[in-house]
């Protein structure tokens, strides 16, 4: 008999994989560019309903734009899957 996949183990494994891939990408950038690495980044932090946007570096605006689009997609996904006129799981 097969065991069901544990969702928390899968989530933890994906987080570890993501950190590992970021680390490998950082090492590749350093090696391929000879130590001259330009940085840039952006983030959106939600505290309740209030977003705080931060960005920096040469391409910080681009990272901030991507973060804003992902945040908007997450909000749309939240409201379309959870609150479509009634709470989830109440039947049709």
From TrEMBL:
Keyword Transmembrane helix: yes
Residue ranges crossing the lipid bilayer per the database entry: 12-32, 39-56, 62-84
Keywords in alphabetical order: Membrane, Transmembrane, Transmembrane helix
Ranges in a coiled coil: none
NCBIfam families hit by this protein: TIGR00304 family membrane protein (TIGR00304)
Protein name as annotated: DUF131 domain-containing protein
Species name: Ignicoccus hospitalis (strain KIN4/I / DSM 18386 / JCM 14125)
């Amino acid at each position: 008999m097969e065991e069901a996949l544990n969702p928390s183990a899968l989530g933890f494994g994906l987080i570890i994989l993501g950190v590992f891939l970021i680390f490998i990408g950082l090492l590749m950038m350093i090696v391929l560019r000879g130590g001259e690495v330009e940085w840039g980044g952006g983030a959106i932090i939600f505290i309740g309903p209030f977003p705080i946007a931060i960005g920096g570096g040469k391409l910080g605006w681009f990272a901030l734009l991507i973060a804003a689009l992902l945040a908007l997609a997450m909000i749309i996904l939240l409201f379309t899957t959870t609150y479509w006129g009634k709470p989830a799981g109440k039947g049709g």
